[in-house]
Write a structure and sequence with these properties.
Strand content: under 5%
Number of helices: 19
Largest sheet: 2 strands, parallel
Radius of gyration: 26 Å
CATH superfamily of the largest domain: Fumarase/aspartase (Central domain)
CATH topology of the largest domain: Fumarase C, Chain A, domain 2
Order of helices and strands: EHEHHEHHEHEEHHHHHHHHEEHHHHH
CATH class of the largest domain: Mainly Alpha
Helix content: 55-70%
CATH architecture of the largest domain: Up-down Bundle
Shape: elongated
Number of strands: 8
Number of domains: 2
Structural class: mainly alpha
Length: 487
C-alpha cells in the first residue's frame, strides 16, 4: 500500500500523490517521540500553581489576562473549539479538507505544540478511514490563523460537528472510535494555524502548474494556427535578458514547434502581435511566480504555525504570532495575478484567431454571415478574463480589527486563497476556449502541417470535439476542452 510517514518532509510531489493516489498516512515513531516529549514537558510545567501561560491556563484573545483554574482546563479547550466553530458559506470540498488534516497533523507532529499522541492519532484515523469533517469556506481572517475553519475541522475529535455530513458521534461509534478529552492547550493548538490557507493555496498551485504546461502547448498550437514567425523564440533574444522563466518558456515553445511545416514556411509579416511574440516574456513571468509561491507554501506546511510554542529543550513556552498568514496572503495574491495573466494573453490570441486575418475566415466560420462561428466563445473568454481582473484586487493589503482590539492586524489570507482558486478555475476555462478555437483555425490552415506535439494535442481534441462547419451550441464543446485540461 502506498504510504506517507508523518515525519517525512512534505513536497509538492508527495502532496500531489496524496491527493491523487489516496496515500495512507503512517504515524511513525519519530513523530510519536517528538509529540510525547513535548506533551510531558507541558504537563509538568503547568503543575506550578503560579505559572501563567497564554491559552493554556488563561482566556483567549483580549481575555488573555483571565486566569483559569486547573479543574477547568479541559472545559476551556473544548469551549474554544465550540465557540470558534462559526463558519458560514459553502462546504469546503473533501480534497481540501483532507489537505487541511494532513497539514495540521504535520504541524502538530513537529513537537512544539504540546498535544497528546492520542489527539494526533485520531486525526490520522480520520484521514486513513476517509472521515471528512464538515468545514465552511468563510470565517477566517488569516490570523490568529484559520480559527473558524480549523474549529469545524477538529470538532469531531470531541464528538461534535459532522463527519461525512453525519453526526460525528454517530460516525465515530460506527468506526470504532471514541471522542477524546482535550488536554491543556490542545484546543488552541488545533485551531491556531494556517492550514486552511495552505490547503487552498497548494491545491491552487498544483492546478496552476498543470495549466501553465497546457498554456504553453495551446500557445504553440495557436502560433501555428495564426501562421506566426519562429524568430521571437530564438535563444539569443532571451539569453541577453536572462530571466529564467523566459528562457525556459522560449526553449519549451521551440521544442513544441519542432518539425512544424507551418512555422518553417516563408511569412509575409515582419512581426506578430504581442500575444504571440511575447509568450516567453508573459508565460515565463508566471512560471517564476509559481516557483516563488511554491517555495513559500512548502516552507509553511513543514512549519509550526500554532501559538504559543513550546521549546522543551530551552525550558521555554513562548507566545508569538506564527499563525499570522501575511506571507501566504501576499503570495496567494501574487499567484492569482500571475495566473490571471495567462488567461489575459490567451484571450488575446483567441481574439486574433477569429479576426479574419492571415488567410483565416471571419470568426473561423466556413460561411461567415450566415454563421457567427467562434464570435461568442471569445465573448465568453473576455467575460471570464474581466472577472479575474476584479478577483485580483489584493486581499493582502486589507485588515480589520478583531477580538476587542487585541488582534488588530490580520492577513485576510483566507479570502486571498478563496479568490485564488476561483482565478485558477477561470484560467482553465479561458485556455479551453483558446484550445477549442485554435483547433478550428489549425484545421482550416491544414492540421497535417502541424508539429508532432501540436498534432497530438489537435487529435486529442478531435476525439471529443468536431470541426464546427455550421452554428451549433458551443458550451458543451468548451466543457469538453476543459476536461482535457483537467485530465
Amino acid at each position: 500500500m502506498n504510504q506517507l510517514e508523518i515525519s517525512s518532509t512534505l513536497t509538492l510531489q508527495n502532496i500531489q500523490e496524496f491527493i491523487e493516489s489516496d496515500l495512507n498516512l503512517v504515524f511513525d515513531d519519530e513523530a510519536i517521540n517528538k509529540i510525547e516529549t513535548c506533551n510531558r514537558y507541558l504537563t509538568n510545567k503547568i503543575k506550578d500553581p503560579e505559572a501563567v501561560y497564554y491559552g493554556i491556563n488563561t482566556g483567549f484573545g483580549s481575555l488573555c489576562h483571565t486566569k483559569i483554574g486547573s479543574a477547568d482546563l479541559q472545559t476551556l479547550q473544548e469551549n474554544l473549539l465550540m465557540s470558534h466553530a462559526c463558519g458560514v458559506g459553502e462546504q469546503v470540498p473533501d480534497t481540501i479538507v483532507r489537505l487541511m488534516l494532513l497539514f495540521k497533523i504535520k504541524s502538530l507532529s513537529l513537537g512544539y505544540s504540546g498535544v497528546k499522541t492520542e489527539t494526533v492519532k485520531m486525526l490520522v484515523d480520520f484521514l486513513n478511514k476517509k472521515l471528512h469533517p464538515f468545514v465552511y469556506k468563510q470565517g477566517s481572517l488569516g490570523a490568529s490563523g484559520d480559527l473558524a475553519p480549523l474549529a469545524h475541522l477538529t470538532l469531531p475529535l470531541i464528538g461534535k460537528g459532522k463527519l461525512n455530513n453525519l453526526s460525528s458521534a454517530e460516525v465515530l461509534q460506527k468506526n470504532g472510535l471514541q471522542a477524546i478529552k482535550l488536554g491543556p492547550k490542545e484546543g488552541l493548538a488545533l485551531i491556531n494555524g494556517t492550514q486552511f490557507m495552505t490547503s487552498y493555496g497548494l491545491y491552487s498551485l498544483i492546478l496552476s502548474k498543470k495549466l501553465l504546461n497546457y498554456a504553453n502547448r495551446i500557445a504553440a498550437l495557436s502560433l501555428e494556427a495564426f501562421d506566426c514567425l519562429a524568430e521571437p523564440f530564438q535563444p539569443q533574444i532571451h539569453k541577453v535578458r536572462n530571466h529564467k522563466g523566459q528562457i525556459e518558456t522560449a526553449k519549451t515553445i521551440r521544442e513544441l514547434l519542432r518539425g512544424s511545416k507551418i512555422m518553417e514556411a516563408p511569412k509575409e509579416q515582419i512581426q506578430d502581435p504581442y500575444s504571440f511574440r511575447c509568450i516567453p516574456q508573459v508565460h515565463g513571468a508566471t512560471m517564476e511566480v509559481i516557483g516563488q509561491v511554491e517555495n513559500v507554501f512548502l516552507r509553511e506546511v513543514n512549519a509550526v504555525t500554532d501559538n504559543p510554542n513550546i521549546f522543551h529543550e530551552d525550558d521555554l513556552i513562548l507566545s508569538g504570532g506564527n499563525f499570522h498568514g501575511q506571507i501566504l496572503s501576499l503570495h496567494a495574491d501574487f499567484l492569482a495575478m500571475g495566473m490571471a495573466e495567462l488567461a489575459n494573453i490567451s484571450e488575446r490570441r483567441t481574439y486574433k484567431l477569429i479576426s479574419g486575418k492571415r488567410g483565416l475566415p471571419d470568426f473561423l466560420a466556413p460561411d461567415p454571415g450566415l454563421n457567427s462561428g467562434f464570435m461568442i466563445p471569445q465573448y465568453t473568454a473576455a467575460s471570464v478574463v474581466s472577472l479575474n481582473k476584479q478577483l485580483c484586487t489584493p486581499s493582502s493589503v486589507d485588515s480589520i480589527v478583531s477580538s476587542n482590539g487585541q488582534e488588530d492586524h490580520v492577513s485576510m489570507g483566507a479570502n486571498a486563497v478563496l479568490k485564488l482558486i476561483r482565478v485558477v478555475e477561470n484560467v482553465e476555462k479561458v485556455l479551453a476556449i483558446e484550445l477549442f478555437t485554435a483547433c478550428q483555425a489549425a484545421e482550416i490552415r491544414g492540421a497535417e502541417n502541424l508539429s508532432d506535439s501540436s498534432l497530438e494535442l489537435f487529435k486529442k481534441v478531435r476525439e471529443v470535439i468536431p470541426f464546427i462547419s455550421e452554428d451549433t451550441e458551443m458550451s458543451g464543446y468548451i466543457q469538453a476542452a476543459q476536461k482535457i485540461l483537467s485530465s
